Every structure is written in structure tokens, then in C-alpha cells.
Amino acid sequence: MIRILLAGQGGQGVLSVGKMLAEGGLREGKEVSYLPAYGPEMRGGTANCSVVISEEEIASPLCNEPDVLVAMNGPSFHKFTPRVRPGGIVLVNGSLSDCYAGREDVAVYDIPANDLALEAGDMRSANNVILGALCALTHVVTDKSVLNCFNEKFVGRPALIEINRRAFALGKRAIDGQDG
Amino acid sequence: MSKILLHGTEAICEGAIRNGCRAFFGYPITPQNEVPEYMSVNMPKVGGAFVQAESEVAAINMVYGAGGAGVRAMTSSSSPGVSLKQEGISYIACARIPCVIVNIMRAGPGLGGILPAQGDYFQATKGGGHGDYHLLVLAPCSVQEACDLTYLAFDLSDKYRVPAMILADGMIGQLMEPVELPPMRPLSAIPKKDWATDGGYGAERRVLNSLIIKPEELEPHVNELQRTYELIAAQEKRCEEYMTEDAEIVLTAYGTVARICKSAAKQLRKEGIKAGVIRPITLYPFPSEAYAKAAEHAKAFLSVELSLGQMVEDVRLAVNGRRPVAFYGRTGGNVPEEGEIVQAAKSALAKARLPE
Amino acid sequence: MAKVFTKTKMLTDVPMHYCPGCTHGIVHRLVAESIEELGLQEKAIGIAPVGCAVFAYDYFNCDMQEAAHGRAPAVATGIKRCLPDRLVFVYQGDGDLASIGMAETVHAAARGERITIIFINNSIYGMTGGQMAPTTLIGQKATTCQNGRDPVVNGYPVRVCELLATLDAPYYIERVSTQDVKHVLAAKKAIKKALRFQAEGRGYSFVEVLVSCPTNWHMKPVDALRFMAEETSRTFPLGVYRDKSEEKGE
Fold it and tell me: How far apart are CA B335 and CA B258, in angstroms?
């Protein structure tokens, strides 16, 4: 079982990556849950969601102590890093945040998602850069599932599929050579 | 059929539509707006009626009209809105009109907050409106159950002519999980209602009414309702028992909180404490027998709720003084973490072990 | 012997409970006769209010639902939206319709629900014993304004036809009276028209009927009828407030 908390600013595609993970897990026959935060946390432009992917029935859908944190900006990184379980992983969008976790027992990966997204062809694909990094690190869902999701989500818009595929690949590559 | 990823609110709607719901009346209130939004799109697709009512009061009375005309009807709201519906629910209960009322609970009292809570347990299970009546109350803990229990609620409500309530917390509303949807049930497969006021004249005419002004008529009517509730209690109690066979500490919770309790029970077992969970699926009728059975071997019970302690009263009645029943609750929209529950369970157990 | 009068079959044989001199019973008959004459009795579903007409479900010889106080238009909406080919009529008094149920009244009209509302205005709460109604006239005495309605304390009566006529959706709105035979016949015409418009699927129809309440007005029945003619209809002018069938392009 893996518990993933994804956080960022509204519009950064955090919820859409969360849904894609759940969708991908489901395609692979796993148990999944996706819980977006709503309410006061939603106001003021922050967005976060909890995704659980498991081989067995999922008891709690909450990610109070996530195995993996995806932080798309500085405030999310600093707010949620203390919650990550010891030995867990933090993926931070280095384009919009420093990488000082203030603790030694988590592995922090600095992914310059916005820069790589620009390289891929569209800033808005930063979320899928991070998704690529996440998949390379954890293999939580297969590349095939993710690419299928792209094809479905952007059906009839091949240019967008291409950009997001590139973003995903760049994110994966960013992990190679990083020790965390 | 393969599973698809759905929101809890969508699953509720699909459960309703697939079991013949053809009328929905609602009013916006967070966190259940996705229900009327979904219904506004999907009711017309199956030839059903959708009205955004001018108030929750109007919505429940539209349900009265539509349900009374023999159509499977539903309304949805969240705590303050459900308070507004209570007068109508009492009339519906008295006139014996089947319908389904969804309450995606938010934190109260008053306007409160919009985050998950379970503070409406008393209102849902003990009457809510005025007079002697009950609702059938079903509490889903997953998106699949949100669909299945809504589907079931229509059948039970029709069968007993008692209004049914889906009592869920805000988390169920937002949660997305894989769901296997039941097939669309044809309206022809739904039993006919000879009591419905769908246009009958002279000797054929029927009246749906909750004014029974003569004491010698009202008492038998209320007694008849009571007999129905007894029948429901005998036939419709549902609960999930999770690792309770040998449990020394029995956690109990409904809705999504029960899932956190399951995680806590697993953790307790890892630490060598035999823990189990009783999760009532029907809150009314309350599955008391499961507690009585567990009290044979359990040392203590712990009711975990997003409230100041409501269901715990029914747990105590069910355990009937045989074992201590402790309580752990969070309110205001806060949800207890697994660790908090583990601690509360340990402390309940420690207290129970103290010499009398 | 030749039969000169037969009671409409749309009324049951249950004796009505209305006070002597009250004209509620007349309006029941007008509604019932109209439905029968239109041949719609097999399709009729009525909604009874809370107030003097609460027992209307015992009198109309068709399917009836008894609504919560003020909610009859919402109940009617629920029925009509599900069973659009039925004739759904609502019978409400002034407290029910214009006070506690004003929201349901206005919004059912604003949505243009294809229902017919018969609004009984006797400017008093009859069933509860003569309290001030939203339609009580200025200066008119009631048990909760014993020196007569004072606009400074109690505000002014609500004119419902005029109010609903500000909305776009209603198809037909008329105010009629039961003060004498001539007016009763005119009232019947309006009620029948309203029901027919619904049956033809044209839209929302609303007939306000001025009714006397000798008991709570503390008058002899004849004086009450005179009061209606001279006083009530001054505050509530009779007439057609909306008739889309008369409008150009209909």
C-alpha cells in the first residue's frame, strides 16, 4: 500500500494528477481511493488531495502520514513535509520552492517541474513532470497506464498528448542520477 | 461489469437512478452541491423530474407530492438544510410516503462549518421532526456503499412505506473510489403502489394525509407505525463485524470513521492488542445484537465519532452495562487520525482492567 | 317530479364543516362542478391546505394530498412534474398562501408550474379563531389587532394577484368574489377557465376568490356579504390581472 499526498496551488493540476494516479491504479486492478481536500483549505488558492493505492482493501483513505508527498510549490512543501512518515519520499517542484526539509529522515527530490514543463512545450504540464518523477521513483502505476490516461484525457488534441508525454518523460529522467 | 472511478455524490445519484428514482428536488448547500448538479444533468436523461427548489422546505414538500403520486423521489442536503426539512419529514412519515433523504453532514451546530462531521446522528435516528416516528437510516462508508445503500434505501422505503435517510459525512461526498454500478432497473420491475394519489376518482379515490384529528383514529395509526418499526428492527439490521471474534477491545464507528478505526485495529493487533471493529450499516434500526455478542468476550468498547458522543448512547444501551463503553470524538470538521484512535483504545482498555 | 338540481359527483357526500354563512362551500362546489364539466375528474389530484379548508380532502371526490402549512404549491409541483398529464389543483387560504407559504407561492408562479391555485381570501385566520391575516384590511379588527389593523404596527394587506402579475411566467391571474349570485357565476367562469388552461398545458393559473367569514368578522351573513362588496373589494379590486390567451400572438 502506498499513501500519496499531493499539494500545490489551485491551477497547478494537483487534483488532476491525483485522479490520474487513482485511475491508473484502477486500470491495473488495484484498490484505490482519491480524496480531495475541500473547505477552507480549498479557498485561498491551495489544493491538495490524498491518493491511496493498494493491493488490498483500503481502510482509511486519509494521508495524515503519507509515504510520498508531492509538493508543487514552497508553501505546500513546508506545510506538509513534517507529516511525511519517516523513511518517506518528498518530491518538490524546485522551480517554485527551496528544498530545505528541516529533517533528515525523508528523501527529498528536487524536480524543477516548471522549467522542465517549459522544455516540454507548456508550463501547464508541470504536474505531469512531477508525475513522471513519481512513477520513476515508486512505480506506483505503470507508464502505460499514465500514457493511456493522457490519450483519454486529451482525446482529439494530439499536440497536448505529445507535450504531456514529453513532460512525463522529462520528469522520469530527472530522477535518474538523484539520490534523494 | 468493470469498475469505474466515481465521487461519492455521483455514486449516490447513480444508486438512486438505477433503482427507479425519477424525481429529485434540492437546494444548494455545501458539501453536497454535486448531488443536485449531477441530478440536474441526469434526471432529464431518464425522463425524470428535477427542480431546484426555492428552499429546503419546498424541496421536501415536492418530495411529499412526487412520492405521494407513487414516483420514487429523493432530496439531498447537508445538516442545516436537513433541519429545515424536518417538518416535512414528519408529515411524510405520518402519511407513510416512501422517499429517500440524503444528508451529507457538515459540522454544527448552527451554520457551523462545511467539513465532515457526524453531529446529526440523534436527529436522524431519534426522530428529528416532531411526533413519534423513525426513519430507516443507512450509513455508507465507501463510494461503493454510497451507491449500493442508496439503491437499497429505495426498496426498503417502498417496502415499509417509511422514509429512508442516507447519513454520510462530507468525506463520503468528496471521496473518489472504484465502483461497480448495478444495472439500470426497469420501472416495470418496481412494485406498483395502490395507495398512491396518481389520479383516482370516486370509489377509486385515495387520500394522503397526516391530519388524524380523532384520538381514537390517531392512536391506532401511530401504533401501526410502531409495529412497522418493530418489523424493520426484526428484519433490516445490518452491520459489518471486523476481527471481532476474539477482540478484547471493540472499536465502533459508522461511515468513513469506521475505516480509520479498521486501520487503528490493524495497528493495535500489530502491537499485540486484540482489537476489532463493529460498523453499523443501519443506524436505525441499530444492530444491537452485534454488541451484545461481542460483550461476551470483549473487555471494553470504544465509540469513535465526529461528534461529542451520540451513537455511543446506543452502544451503551446495546452493551447494557456488561462492559465499559468509552468514547473518543473530534468535532468542528476535524477527523481523528489512526494514532489518536490507537491511544484512545489503549486507554479504554487500561481503564477497563483497573480493579473495580 | 322533475329533478331541478343535482349535486356534482366531484363532491363527496361528507357534510362540510364550514360555519353558517361562510362562502367556502360555494367555492368548493364551483371547483368541483368545473372539473366535472370539463370531464377531468379521472385526472384530478387536489392539494388541501392547512386552515379552514384543511378537510377539503374529505369533500373533493378525487385523489387528494393534504399538505403542510403553506407548502401546497411545492407539493403540487412535485406531483405535476412527475405526472404532467394530470389536473393538479391547489386550494389555499390567505394565511397558508400569503403568509407562511409566500415563498412557495411566488416561486411556483415564477417557475410557471402548470398547476391551478384557488386562493381563498377572507382576510382573517378562520380556523385558529380570528387572528390577523396578511390580507386583513386596514382598520379591520382581529384577535391579534383588537383595535383594528394599524399600518404603523401591522403593516398593510398583501395584494397577491398584483404581486404575482409582476412575474413573467403566470398564464392566468384573476380575482373574483362570492358577494352575490352574479359574482359567484363570474367566479365559476374564472375557475373553469383556470382549470381549462392547465388542462390545455398553457401554464400557471391562479384565481383569488374573496370569501366572507361572518363568524370571525362578527357579522350576520348578509352583512358580511355587504362588507365584501363595499370594503373587501375596495382593497382587493376584482378583475383579470393576467390572461395570456388574450394577448397578441396567442
Answer: 11
C176 found inside a domain? yes
The topology under which CATH files domain B4-235 is: Rossmann fold (3.40.50)
Tell me how far the alpha carbon of residue A124 is from its chain's centroid.
14
pLDDT digit string (tens) for chain B, length 356 residues: 589 999 999 999 999 999 999 999 999 998 999 999 999 999 999 999 999 999 999 999 999 999 999 999 999 999 999 999 999 999 999 999 999 999 999 999 999 998 999 999 999 999 899 999 999 999 999 999 999 999 999 999 999 999 999 999 989 989 999 999 999 999 999 999 999 999 999 999 999 999 999 999 999 999 999 999 999 999 999 999 999 999 999 999 999 999 999 999 999 999 999 999 999 999 999 999 999 999 999 999 999 999 999 999 999 999 999 999 999 999 999 999 999 999 999 999 999 987 65
CATH of the domain at C32: 3.40.50.970
- Structural domain span for residue C182: 24-243
Q: Which of B58, B199, B210 shows the shortest C-beta gap to C74?
A: B58
Q: Taking CB atoms and an 8 Å cutoff, what residues of chain A touch B176?
A: 19, 22, 33-36
CA distances from B237 to B83, B231, B281, B284, C88 (A): 25, 10, 8, 8, 39
* Residues of chain B with C-beta less than 8 angstroms from the C-beta of C57: 207, 209
Contacting chains of C (3 CB pairs or more, <8 Å) are: B
Q: Give contacts of C105 with chain B, Cβ < 8 Å.
A: none
**C-alpha–C-alpha distance, residues A94 and C236, integer Å:** 74
Hey, is the C-beta of A156 within 8 angstroms of any chain B C-beta? no
C235 lies in some domain: yes
Residue type, A59: A
Walk me through the domains of chain A, giving residue ranges and CATH numbers. Answer: 2-175 (3.40.920.10)
Question: In which order are the strands placed within the sheet that holds C205-210?
Answer: B207-208, C63-66, C44-48, C87-93, C116-121, C205-210, C172-177, C239-243
Question: Is the domain B239-353 a CATH 3.20.20.30 member?
Answer: no
Is residue A36 less than 8 Å (CB to CB) from chain B?
Answer: yes
Bridge-partner residues for A91, per DSSP? A70, A109
Q: Do domains B4-235 and B239-353 have the same CATH topology?
A: yes
